[in-house]
Amino acid sequence: MDHFPTNWGRPRNDAYDAYGTYPIAQRPYNGPKDAFAQGIQHTQQPIVTGTSVLALKYKDGVMLAADNLASYGSLARFKDIQRLQAIGAHTVIGAGGDMSDFQYIQAMLDELIIDEFTAQDGHTLGPAEIHEYLAQVMYARRSKMNPLWNAILVGGVKDGKRFLSFVDLLGTTYSASTLATGYGAHIALPLLRTAVEGKEDILNEEEAHKILEQSMKVLYYRDARSIDKYQVATITAEGVSISETRHLETSWSFAEGIRGYGAQTQ
Amino acid sequence: MPSIEQPQQRQFNPYSENGGTILAIAGADFSVIAGDTRQSEGYSIQTRYAPKVFRLTDRAVLAVNGFAADGNMFVKKVRQRLEWYRHAHAKDMPLRAIARLIQTMLYARRFFPFYVYNILGGIEEDGTGAVYSFDPVGSYEREACRAAGAAQSLVQPFLDNQIYFKNQLPAPGTSHPAHLPLSTVLSLVIDSFTSATERHIEVGDGLEIYIVFSKGSTSLQGLASVRGLQEVTTTDDGERVFVIRRELKKD
């Protein structure tokens, strides 16, 4: 006897065990079927990914660094991808995570900047506004269970104020005088905090760059999804500049002296 | 016999847990609402300063703890509703009304909850100090004190003992006080957080203590000697709000 009156008089489904109690009693579904349910795909995992982004505040502004690699799993797939992008005249964003989602975000923010420019109302969007907008978009997408799979740093200078904040695929936000995403949050951030905290108003551009280069180098030695080519974005009151690709000078000769690191001769 | 086809998928998890602890204690004519400022995920400290306690009006302060993104969004939406109320009625919403509003806002998301534990502190219309505590789907009650978050299990028993005098017998011929003075409450709050910082890895960095006083509260005198005090009152309705910022251990 089927005890669900809504099933009475409907075709029987012999593949369905009406007496099954595990995991919980299931009823056959008799409602309308969505033929396209299988067709709607949400991002469930990142595919082509970027690794860490690093950033710090220094005397004259904010500096960000990210390498030029986009990986496909463990394959170093694209080796000249730019992961830092200027948004408007006062802001740079840097992204780790899914690169196609990041490129979508770039297109979205470029359109936003054009809309604001077209208004010609004497206002421009600064880093705080860009970050707030991005945070709302990221949170809205996670709430639709269709996240943009990124961790993003937003840095900039506007009206004489430095700004540096984080936002990720969950819509989580926070700010500090130095930030890092991905592996960098584990490996580089302790180094950055030691070098930067309490010295935000003292460090000059050269020192800030030195700190970032050193951290990128440590990451390149330890993060298997990184590459020795990176870019640095500098945002000051004068404006935004993103450097040409730079090369990290590394030395691997120490490896020969370590047993278990390379080919063994004995 | 095979059962009907079950969809099998690895699902995106829309929640995270960002640590930290919050706490509120009601006095006779004041209310104290406090929270640490560390935000973490797993073993990583994301930032040493991310406020969890927010002044809503001059008689209401809200502390949020749990998933930080949900917490910030929830505070944003509560503030929006309070602004609409101000425009409609030309006054700030009373505390007990804010408490009921928060319940309905939380329960509206019963099937995709805000993963947030709320504690609302402030002054009722009758001038008494009040604390309301909520679960993520809106169950709430008015209490004299409440701790929530990562170190709830460390702090709440301490408060039960020191505020409600649980497991304590009064000296012969005396009785336990119904309300504690401000200086005692502040000491309890600071001790709670320094101790939670010692024993819980997700608690530390900074401490923000909000104090709300009713109109003409006599407890105001006790503030003179307090270090690191700042007034954040915005109206001249009579209620006054102060915040004390302190450092906690950063390890």
UniProtKB/TrEMBL annotation, chain A:
PROSITE patterns hit by this protein: PROTEASOME_BETA_1, PROTEASOME_BETA_2
Range of residues in the leader sequence: none
Domain of life: Eukaryota
Keyword set, alphabetical order: Cytoplasm, Nucleus, Proteasome
Pfam families: Proteasome
Gene3D superfamilies: Glutamine Phosphoribosylpyrophosphate, subunit 1, domain 1 (3.60.20.10)
GO cellular component, one term: proteasome core complex, beta-subunit complex
InterPro entries attached to this UniProt entry: Ntn_hydrolases_N (IPR029055), Proteasome_beta4 (IPR016295), Proteasome_bsu_CS (IPR016050), Proteasome_sua/b (IPR001353), Proteasome_suB-type (IPR023333)
Protein localization: Cytoplasm; Nucleus
Any one biological process term the GO annotation gives: proteolysis involved in protein catabolic process
Family, as annotated: Belongs to the peptidase T1B family.
Protein purpose: Non-catalytic component of the proteasome.
Protein name per its UniProtKB record: Proteasome subunit beta
Organism in which the protein naturally occurs: Asterophora parasitica
Automatic annotation (TrEMBL), chain B:
Keywords, in A-Z order: Cytoplasm, Nucleus, Proteasome
Pfam family for this entry, one: Proteasome
GO biological process: proteolysis involved in protein catabolic process
Subcellular compartments: Cytoplasm; Nucleus
Function: Component of the proteasome, a multicatalytic proteinase complex which is characterized by its ability to cleave peptides with Arg, Phe, Tyr, Leu, and Glu adjacent to the leaving group at neutral or slightly basic pH. The proteasome has an ATP-dependent proteolytic activity.
Subunit structure, as described in the record: The 26S proteasome consists of a 20S proteasome core and two 19S regulatory subunits. The 20S proteasome core is composed of 28 subunits that are arranged in four stacked rings, resulting in a barrel-shaped structure. The two end rings are each formed by seven alpha subunits, and the two central rings are each formed by seven beta subunits. The catalytic chamber with the active sites is on the inside of the barrel.
Name of the featured protein: Proteasome subunit beta
Organism: Asterophora parasitica
